[in-house]
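User: quick one, fold this
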Amino acid sequence: MDVTRLVALLLSGSILTLVIWLIREGRLREKYSLLWLCTSLIIIALAVSRRLLETVAIAVGIYYPPSLLFLLGMLFLLLVNIGFSVTLSRLTQSTHKLAQEVALLKKELEDHKKCD
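Assistant:
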């Protein structure tokens, strides 16, 4: 087993173990864990099976099969960043709306205190 495959196997196995532990501890929601679990399992499968790795790499047009592992890692990070951007945008809109509602409630409270 060459060093690249061993490193990929160790890293993906570690990520898989960490994700399972985080889910059990309640620190990672299932919504996000599916992407992590699937990616870890795919990289483990490609790292273990040299033939599968070579077949997929050739089908994609990559001449050095271990490079496929790093390409998958980069694509994974891109997907995670897109997902976080969507979540951040949604949370920003929600925070803005909540701030407006709090300001309106404060104004109503002040007006109510002036009437008394």
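User: anything notable?
Assistant: The chain is about 90% helix and 0% strand.
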